[in-house]
Amino acid sequence: MSRIAATFAHLKTEGRAGLIPFVEAFDPDRATSAALLAGMAARGADIIEIGMPFTDPMADGPTIQAAGRRALRAGATLAGVLDLVREFRAVNGTVPLVLMGYLNPILSYGVERFAADAAKAGVDGLIVVDLPTEEADLMLPGLRANGLDLIRLVAPTTSDERLPVVLKESSGFVYYVSITGVTGTRTASAEDLTRDIPRIRAATDLPIAVGFGVRTPEQAAIVARHADAAVVASALIDRMASGLDESGHAPHAVIEAVLDDVSALAGAMRGEKRAA
Amino acid sequence: MNQPIPNSLRNLPDERGRFGDFGGRFVAETLMPLILELEAAYEAAKRDPAFQREFEYYLKHYVGRPSPLWFAERLTEKLGGAKVYFKRDELNHTGAHKINNCIGQILLAKRMGKTRIIAETGAGQHGVATATVAALFGLPCVIYMGATDIERQQPNVFRMKLLGAEVRSVTSGAATLKDSMNEALRDWVANVRDTFYIIGTAAGPHPYPAMVRDFQSVIGIEARAQMLEAEGRLPDVAIAAVGGGSNAIGLFHPFLDDAVKLIGVEAAGRGLNSGEHAASLSRGRPGVLHGNKTYLLQDADGQILEAHSISAGLDYPGIGPEHSYLHEIGRVDYVAITDDEALDAFQLCCRTEGIIPALEPSHALAHVAKIAPEMPRSQIILMNLCGRGDKDIFTVAKHLGENL
């Protein structure tokens, strides 16, 4: 069983939804990302999503755009991201790591080579924002051959008729982009989720994670009632960005503040029993 | 309507929106259903004679088509070789070829029941053309424009405002065309139900490259007929400037199956080896950006590089996917012209033909000036003069050391 499948099986036995915090790799530097990965795993993250910086993040709002710029200035490359994964994996064999990014850097690295190197480093799944189902054949064979999940995105614009098309040959979990908009801008309401999650459930047996706009413990708790996991990204990056020192580095206290947020999110979600 | 011609280069893209290995639909899932809806609506409109009639009506009575084909006699004499003809798309309403495509897309938006228009712009020509058609059809319009471009294209910013558009300044990245396109895509994702995104060049996710090409093909269709009338034969060479490549593909497409040499002129900026240029085909390699696979300026890690050209309209690190295909199969030759060469051609055109050209077609003209003297007087060059230079006089004045 893959780490992702094992994690969701474990969550099911505990009757709770998982927390997926996000780290933009190399934002603002490599050491901070390494500290956040290790700290998040210790503070209640069930899966960690790692952003692969790109110059043109078309689906991201101002927060993640700024994080990507800081990361690229710090010298982020895909090879560097995989090295960060390798370091985490050396001390943690259980928490799944999902890379999220855009297609062009992967194409540049070489799809087959990237899939092989990512699997070897300890990556479990990939989210490629600008690779819709219609173009997924570009990566699927390479990812499959290396035991990696290609996590599919489903959006509010994905019709019931289209859901089976999008979810065809999907694995790992389904990532529900709960708003029409870029990351970190709006938040889906409990009513939205009550309406949206069941129609995705009807189309797949895979676990459903909800992302885009989940910021507070209260919002994460609402997601926990409806879905199998909540992704929190921009709120954590905002916390860190607001505490960067004059040289653009993250002081120890800021990393601790981000990790305290992770603890609070995890705590709030553990208090919620799944509705389904 | 038209049966596909076997062995024709004019049948692309395929059903996946591919021109060979290029093109496609590389967008987030949120946009994918909209792209598919747009494709279906465009296919239906293309087959609807009423839509075509409406398009032709606006081109004739509003844009002022057909644009003339002009024999540039004094220029021809000065260059001393092949006869040079200009396709005068700078005489269109709003001063460039951009309006052809905007008319087509806003008619489609209206047909689809969309009530809000967005667009990206670099030099501001596409922004002005979009603001113009939005005013004509009474639809609210938001134009995304890089802060750097806003600074160097003030007259166009004011034109858009006069036309009732809201110009939103984009400060991410280098704050130029690439970044405006990112921001327009973000707007579209957030306003999927009511918004129509009028892309200005023959790039982006399918069906945009094919749709923009079809709307701009009026340039080549007219020029082909006008050339036959004027000379009784087709030109030996057809030439156009290429940024994203919409005026060039509009000129080239009707000639793809003819024995006409086609030349696209990229912007070499401060030189192809200076690192400051916009020559995606000459110096880039294939990748994926803004919804399509195409040649891009990028670093070894696949991060997109900033383009540079004196011409804001060519200042883009990518190119339409059909050009990438035509480059790879060798049907079109792509060459590059520097800022300085374009400035010389700009002045040459002013003084020999009494036409102030935009800096974009000045790149094409600079290449004409290179090849015409080497060609016999019996041969013919057709060049697309795709825009007029009113918008560029401040930029040119600065480079010539004049203070306006």
Summary of the model, kept short:
Chain A: InterPro entries: Aldolase_TIM, RibuloseP-bd_barrel, Trp_synthase_alpha_AS, Trp_synthase_suA. With 276 residues, chain A is of the alpha/beta class.
Overview of this protein structure:
Chain B: One of its GO terms (molecular function) is tryptophan synthase activity. Chain B: The beta subunit is responsible for the synthesis of L-tryptophan from indole and L-serine. Chain B: InterPro entries: Trp_synth_b_CS, Trp_synth_beta, Trp_synth_beta/beta-like, TrpB-like_PALP, TrpB-like_PALP_sf. The complex is a heterodimer of chains A (276) and B (404). With 276 residues, chain A is α/β, with parallel strands linked by helices. Chain A has a single domain, classed as TIM Barrel. In chain A, 47% of the residues lie in helices and 13% in strands. Chain A starts with a helix and ends in a 6-residue tail after the last helix. Chain B has helices at 32-46, 49-63, 73-79, 98-111, 125-137, 147-152, 154-162, 177-190, 208-216, 218-231, 246-252, 280-283, 321-328, 339-353, 359-371, 393-399, and strands spanning 18-19, 22-26, 69-71, 83-87, 116-121, 141-146, 166-170, 195-197, 237-241, 261-269, 285-289, 291-296, 332-338, 380-384. Chain B has 404 residues and is of the alpha/beta class. In chain B, β9 (237-241), α11 and β10 (261-269) form a beta-alpha-beta unit. The chains are: A alpha/beta (276), B alpha/beta (404). The A-B interface holds A 54-59, 61, 65, 72, 77-78, 102-109, 129-135, 152-159, 162, 166, 177, 180-182, 185-186 and B 16, 24-34, 172-173, 178-179, 182, 185-186, 189-193, 286-291, 296, 298, 300-304.
